């Protein structure tokens, strides 16, 4: 091979490497924050009938609630608008993994979930409660419902199910696809009680006052609730959401959003039992 041919070969090899590098860059995954800014959309999961977090107007199909207010605030700071995808508490984790959404609200950061998604700082702290069917003895402790004859209804894949299986392993646990189905099981007598986060339980009993009673069993169980996001190398989105969560929690803005969500179902601050944190 003469000098001219050698130079041509080197040039072609260099061009091929450059083209390969360019193709690789084109196919490299875009970070979530870049995708949101480019598309102008913040995609979130919404869950029907979960006041004060989410409320769907069946006439207009418009969504409202504390998490919608939070999402609008986050989107505004990113120069984006909110786009919703109807989901369930359990499925929103799968929606994140499938890149159908960019943000999941009210996600408890369990070790198992941390293997597949990432989390912001907590937006608030939740207490777990029990909704009993009418006539069922109101439990003062978790041990009182940790019996084979007690039927506990929970929504599959939720932290409600995790708490039920952790503190009531001897009970008969009935799993349902959605929380509304678990509540229906209690109202029809198919189940004796339902385990739910306090903010959801209070709103449920306000809408269904004949359903039963609200119990806050001892020991008092609390867990932080966070924003769920996809795990990725670029930390900007996570750091932004953590700063947003810390800032609004410290200022009391998060509590105001929750109270506003309660107002939609006719609940005020005095209607919240003192044991319940949020």
From TrEMBL:
InterPro entries linked: Solute-binding_3/MltF_N (IPR001638), TAT_signal (IPR006311)
Matching Pfam families? SBP_bac_3
Q: Which domain of life does this protein belong to?
A: Bacteria
Q: Is Kinase one of the keywords? A: no
Signal peptide per UniProt: 1-25
**Keyword tags:** Signal
Q: Which residues form the Solute-binding protein family 3/N-terminal domain?
A: 41-265
**Keyword flag Signal:** yes
Q: What is this protein called?
A: ABC transporter substrate-binding protein
């Amino acid at each position: 091979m003469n000098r001219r041919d050698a130079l041509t070969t080197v040039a072609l090899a260099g061009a091929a490497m450059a083209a390969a590098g360019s193709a690789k860059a084109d196919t490299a995954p875009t970070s979530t924050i870049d995708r949101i800014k480019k598309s102008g959309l913040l995609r979130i999961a919404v869950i029907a009938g979960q006041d004060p977090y989410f409320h769907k107007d069946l006439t207009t199909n418009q969504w409202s609630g504390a998490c919608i207010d939070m999402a609008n605030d986050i989107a505004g700071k990113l120069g984006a608008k909110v786009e919703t995808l109807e989901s369930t508490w359990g499925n929103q984790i799968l929606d994140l993994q499938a890149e159908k959404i960019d943000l999941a609200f009210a996600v408890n950061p369990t070790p198992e979930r941390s293997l597949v998604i990432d989390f912001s700082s907590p937006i608030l702290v939740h207490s777990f409660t029990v909704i009993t069917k009418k006539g069922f003895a109101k439990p003062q402790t978790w041990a009182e419902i940790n019996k084979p004859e007690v039927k506990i209804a929970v929504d599959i894949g939720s932290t409600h199910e995790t708490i039920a299986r952790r503190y009531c392993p001897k009970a008969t646990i009935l799993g349902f696809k959605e929380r509304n189905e678990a509540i229906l099981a209690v109202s029809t007598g198919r189940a004796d009680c339902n385990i739910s986060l306090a903010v959801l339980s209070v709103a449920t009993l306000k809408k269904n006052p004949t359903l039963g009673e609200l119990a806050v069993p001892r020991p008092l169980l609390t867990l932080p609730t966070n924003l769920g996001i996809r795990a990725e190398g670029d930390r900007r989105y996570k750091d932004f959401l953590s700063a947003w969560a810390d800032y609004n929690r410290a200022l009391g803005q998060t509590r105001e959003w929750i109270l506003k969500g309660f107002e939609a179902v006719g609940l005020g601050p005095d209607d919240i039992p003192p044991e319940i944190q949020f």
